[in-house]
Amino acid sequence: MQPTSNRSTVMEPVAIIGMASFFADAHNLADYWDNIVRERNSITDIPASRWNITDYYDPDPTAPDKSYCKRGGFLPDIDFDPMEFGLPPNILEVTDVSQLLALVAAREAFEDAGYGATRGHDFERTGVVLGVCGGQKLMTPLIARLQYPVWEQAMRSCGLSEERVAEAIAKIKLAYIRWEENSFPGMLGNVIAGRIANRFDLGGINCVTDAACASSLSALQMALSELTSGRCDMMLTGGVDTDNSPFMYMCFSKTPAFSRQDSPRPFDASSDGMMVGEGVGMLVLKRLADAERDGDRVYAVIRGIGSSSDGRYKSIYAPRSEGQARALRRAYVSAGVPATSIGLIEAHGTGTVAGDLCEVQTLREVFGEGNPRQAHIALGSVKSQIGHTKAAAGSAGMIKAALALHHRVLPPTIGVDAPNPKFGLEGSPLYVNTRARPWLRAAGATPRRAAVSAFGFGGTNFHVVLEEYASDHRRPYRIHQTAQELILAAPTPAALRERCADLAEALAGPLAAQVFAELTEATRLIELPTELSRLGFVADGPSEAREQLLRAIAMLDGQPNAERLQHPKGVFFQRYGFATAGRVVALFPGQGSQYLEMGRDLALNFPPLRDLLGRADAYGANAPLSEVMFPAPAFTPAEKATQDERLQRTEHAQPAIGTLSAGMFGLLRDAGFQPDMVAGHSFGELTALWAAGAVDDDDFLALAHARGRAMAPPNDPSFDAGAMLAVSAELATVQTIAGQVPGITLANLNAYDQVVLAGPTAAIGRARHLLEAAGHRATPLPVSAAFHTPLVGHAQAPFSRAVHACAFSPPRLPVYANATAQPYPADPRAMQALLADQLLQPVRFLDQIEQIYAAGGAIFVEIGPRNVLTNLVGRILGDRPHIAVALNSSRQLDSDRQLREAVVQLRVAGVPMRGIDPYQREAAPAPARKRRGMMVQLNGSNYVSEKTRAAYADAIARAPAPNVPTINEEDQVMTILPESTPLPTQERRNGHAPTDHPATPGELMAQLQAHQREILQVHQQFLSYQHEYVTLLLQLPQSAAAGQGDLAAMHQIQAETLRIHQRFLEQQGDYAAGLIQLIQQQQTAQTAQRAVSTPAPLAPPAPVAIAPVAPSRAALTPSPSPAAAGEGSQIPPEPKAPPAPIFAPPAPIFAPPAPVAIAPVAPSRAAL
Fold this sequence. Notes:
The protein is an alpha/beta fold.
C-alpha cells in the first residue's frame, strides 16, 4: 500500500549536543568512554552494598528461588545533595534511586550541552522522554511490607503465640520502607521524567516509554518526533535502569538467560548468555540547524531511525530476523543513506546464543545486499564491558557510538577470543572489533557513520543511524584520559628535591586531582633556562605522578652530585640544560622498522596524525593504507602471519613508515621542535627531504607510494627479488667471509660492527650459514627485496619518473644523503637525480653520522617506528658525548606514552619545546553550588539511612523477651506504687510471661539498667529529630514555595513534640522510682519466703500509656529465644508453685508526631 502523504520520508538531521552517563565503574561520561577505549572489564561480583550473594545464589539453574549468576555491572557511588534539587532528606528512603540519579544525570547533560543553571536558558520548549521499564524496584519492599497477613498465618501455624507473632512482624517490617505520602510517587517510573521536568522547569513533553530492552531507543524516537515536528526545540532523552535486585536476577535466571562464565562474551564462540547491569544514560538533542545557529558543540548527528514489530512468531521473547531487518531498512530510508556506508555497528549483542545468532544473520543480510566489500564494518557491543543495562541499554549504545564518531575511534568489544563460527562472518562486510583502532577516512570519502540497535522482549525493534559532525579538532576535544607530561624546575637540585617532596605530599591529599591538573597545565607552557635544575616524567594521574616523584626523590638522594640521571620507569633529571642550538638532528627510519598497528595509540589521540593517515589512504592503489597498518583483528596465527606479510610488501611498508614518521614529526613541530639538520636511512631519506621542506605533503605521499610500488617485485613467480641480511661484525670480517659467495653485495654500512648484505635469496642463505658458523650473528631482515642492489633495478626507472614529476625546492635544513654522506645539493634538479639513483646505491649510514657529529650534531631524535637508528647512533659514537632518543622504541608499548616520554626527555635535556598535547579536554569545573543540606552517596541500591539500618540491626540483635505464664490472682501479692503508676490488670501484661523461678534483686537491677539504656536511646533519637528539624527550618526560607503558614505549622508541631517528650521523661522518673521500690519489696518478700517457705509473688506495675502517641519501631521489645523452653516449644510448663513474677519494663513510647505538609515538598516524620 502506498503512503497517503507526499511528505519526504527522510528525517531532518538532529544534533547530539550534550551527554551524561553513569554506568558500571564509571562516575561520569569521561570515565565511561575511558573504560571503553582502555578495554576495561567492569563486570564484578554482586557488591555487599546491593544484597547478600549467599542468600540467593546457587550454581544449579534449577534450584528454586535461586539465581545461578552472581556477577554483573554495578554503578559506583555518586554524590547527591537532595537540597540542590529541592528534596527534603527525609524522603530519600521512599524515593527510588532511579529518580534521584536521573536528576543528577539530567543536570550533567544540560551542563555538558552548555545549558547549565548559570546560562539562564528558558526551557519552555524543552521536553524530556526517557526509557524506563515498568515500576521501579522501590515497589518490591513496599509490596513485601504488606505481606504481613501471610507471615502471621505462617507463624501461627508453627505454634507461635500472638505476642511472639506481633513481635516478629514488627521486626520484619523494620526491614522494609514505610508507606507514607511520598511512597507512591517514589516508586513510579514516569516520575523519573516528571521530577526532571519539575526541577528544571521544562515546558515540553514529559513522559517515559517502556519497550523493555529497547526502551531507550523508543524514547529517542519520540524525542526526535518532538523536534522534527517543531513541538519542541530541545529534548532530553535516554534511559534509566538501576535494578540489579534479587528480583531481576531471578527473572533472568529462570528464563534462563544468564551466562555461567565470569563475564558476558557477545559474539564469542563460547558465549552462553548475558549479565545485567545498572545504568543511566542521557542525551541532549536539538535540530542540527538550530545547534549550528546557536554555536553548540555537536558530538554526532542523528540521521534516521527505524522501528518495527516482529509480529506473530514462535514466542513472545524469541527474536525474529525478519522483524529486525524491517527496522534496519526503515532506518536507512529515514536517513537517506545506504547501509553500505556504515563503518560501525553497536549491536544489541547481549551474549545469548539465540539472540546474537539471529542479530548477526540479520546484519549479514541487510549490509551484504549489493556490497562486495569485506570486513569494513566493525561490530561491537558495550554489554561485554558493562553488562545489559536493560531499559538504559540503548542509551549506552548511543553514547558509545556518538563518542566513537566524535573521537574518530572504532571502539572495542572485549572477551572475544574467536567469533562464533555459526555467524559466517568470513567474506561478509562485518568483523568483530576487539581493540580500539583509529577510524580513518580518506580525503573526500563518505562521512563516518555508525548505527545502533536495540531489541526488546515482546518483539520490538529499533535501529538508529548516526553520522560524524565535521567538528574542529584543533581545540581540546578528547575526553578519555591519556598520560601527561610533567616537568619541574628549581635553581638547585636540593630545591628541586624539596619541590618534589611538597608535590608528593599534595598528591596524596584531598586536592590531588586539582594539583595534578595544575601541574599538567604548567608543564605545557614551562620554559627551562639552561641554569635551572630540571626533572620530568609522564604520569596518567595523581597516583602515578606521586609514585614518579618518590622515585625522583630516591634517585636524587642516591646520587646528589650527578649531572644527569635516568630512572628505568621514565624519570629524567639534569642538573643543567644543554646548549642545543645547532646540535639537534632528526633521523627517519627506513623499511624494516614497520610493524602491525604501529602508531595506533598516537592515531587514537592526535587528529593531525589521523588526518595525514587518512590522506595517505587516497594514494593506495589496491587497498587503503590504514587497513594494512591497522587491520581487522586476527584470531588465528595464520591470520596474523598473513597480515604481517602484507605489511612487509614494499608497496605498503614504505608509505606506512613514511606517513607515520611524517605524522610524528608534525606533532613535534607543532610543539616547537626545530631540528638543525636531518637524515634518513634508505627510504627514510625521502621523509628527511620532506621534513626539510624540499617537497610538500601531497608530493611526499605520492612519492612514498610510488617508491613502494616501484620496488615491489615483478608479477613473475620465477623472479627472485633477493633478500637482505644484517650481520654483527666489522666490515672487513664480513667481506672476507661473505666474499666467498658470488652475488653478495654490501647494501648498508650501518655501524662499525654492523653491515647489511644483499643478494639473491639462495646466496644470502649460504652467506648466513658461513657467518653463523664463524660465530657472528646474522639476522634476515623483514623486507621483500634486496634493496640497494641491481636486483631492484626494475624500480629505478618508474621511481625516477615519479621523482621528476614532483616539484622540488631547496631544503631549509641540511639533508645528509645516504650515497654521499654529505648534504643534498640546493639545486632541485641535482636533488632529483641523487634521490632517483639512491635505490641502487649502498647506504653509508656510519659515514653520515660521523659527518653530522663533526658538523655539531649531538642530540639525535629518531622519528618513526622502532629504535633501529637510535641503537646504531650509540654503536657509532660510543662514549662520545651525545644524546639519542627514539620516539617509538618498542613495538609492545603504548606509542602515545612513548612519544610523551621522549618529549619530556628532550625538554629536560634543553631542547626548546612546549607541551605536545593541546587536545585533552579538561573536565569542566562544576558550577558553584550551595551545600544547603546533607550530601549522600547513591548507587544502584535504594537509599537507606544509617538510622534505619541501625534500628533494624538493633531489633535483630536484641535478645528475645521471656515467656511469662498466667498467674493466679489469688496468689499475687499486690505492691503499692506511686499514684502516678496504675496497677496492672490481667488483660494487659505487655507481652511478658512469668518465668518458672522468682527474680532476684540482682536480676531486677539488671532490668533497671537495661531500661535506663532504652530511655537514653529514645532520648538520643529525640535529639536527632531536633537536629533534623533545625536543619530543615534553616533550609525552608530558601525554598521559593515556603510560606509563613508552613513555618507556623512546623513550630506548632515542634511545641507539641517538646510537650510530649517532657511528659515522657516525667513518667519515666516516676516509673524508675516505683521500680526501685519494687526491688526493695522483692528483697523483703524473698527474706520472708526463706523464713516460712511460702512464695509471695509481686505484681509488676502496668506501663504508663500516654495517648495519642504510638510506640516507635525502634523501641520494639526483642523477640524471645526458644532455647530456654526447648526447641519448638511455645507453651511453658505449669509451675509447681506460684512463682514471683519478674518485672518487665514497658517499651518506650515516644515517637515523633505525624508529618505536616509543607508546599511544595512534603517532609516525612523524620524531619520534624
